[in-house]
# Entry
Amino acid sequence: MAYSRTQLYLLIASNALATALDLILWIRVVKMMSGFSWFVSQLLYPVCKTIILVPAMLVLVHRKSLSPKNFTFPKWKICALATMATSINYGMTLGSALLPDTLQAVLWKCSTVSIMIQARLILKTKYRWTHVAGALLITMAAAASVWGTQEGGSKHDLMQIILGVCFLLACLFVPQNIFTEKWSKESDLNPVYLRSWTSVFSCALGVVLLPLAFVRTSDNPPIPFNPRGIGDYLSDAFGCFAGYAQPKYQSSHCDDSTPPWVVWIMMMAINVTVDVTGVAVAKYGSASTGAALGSCNMLVTLGLMQMQWLTGEAPAKVTLANVLSVVAVLAGIALYGWFPEIPLDKYLGFSKPQQPQLEAADYNLDKSEAEFTRPLLDGRDGLDGRDGRDGRYGPDGQLQKV
# Structure
């Protein structure tokens, strides 16, 4: 299946809108359940995603809507993607609990540069000066917004911000999107199939990473690393998720007027959309194009942060730095989208020519006639050896030995 440029842009716009909503709700849940980082990122998130995506995958299998390449795709590669996704989720959870909402939103705009670097190293994608200039403008937008959100505070607050920024920047350089693009194009993977198996492996990894639940990441009391400690932690986590206050976790806000489970349901419904459309953008376009053009979601994010019923907090203050950053993002998107990227042939995505491979039988030709007319069947004139991709056809139209 090939996507036209218009369809790809609509897909990117849908992903950008869903990403903005997803980010707002994710930040809200993480802050409400502060102190339960492992529970949110390694247990609740992958289990819920598995419950949603696996039945959808089974429906596709039952209807025989999946190509055979999906079933032969190596599971170790899916495990690798799950490992990368797990590390990103945990890093995001820790960073989200330490940083202001606006600062988190704009830091993710730096992903354009990080993805371009990874695509150049892994996929050998080439970029024009417009791509570099556009990515730098988007990064400048992030820097402008970071500058605009700096406020006076204690040394401890500053250290929290530095630590949170380090967590999020580390997440930006995990090459999950690049390998998703590479493998989904090479094996023609269905986005739902890929994300379903990734969520299954993530559930298994969450069990392996259970010791992270006992890493103290806030002012909450340490959790004893024993069976009773695990039981108490899970009991408190589920209680918080249900909307009951947890006295031992002073930094949490479990008894908010809107309980965590309500916000979580909304977030998961949107997050599945983000995941599936994200794989589709990488498969039919590229991860770097999706990151650059999807940066328009910053404008949507800043608008959504003015809605207290959605964020659960007072409306975010819009500063001159925020306005300048939006202008820089729009200019960066225009520059980046001016010319297409230059990928390797096998990673052309939606722009790859879809030419049917015609056979001699389609024209009732015998074997000798097929040898002579093969260039015509392949869409080439066959009168010049340069017209063949490998130059096998000579001036007389006969197949030449190479």
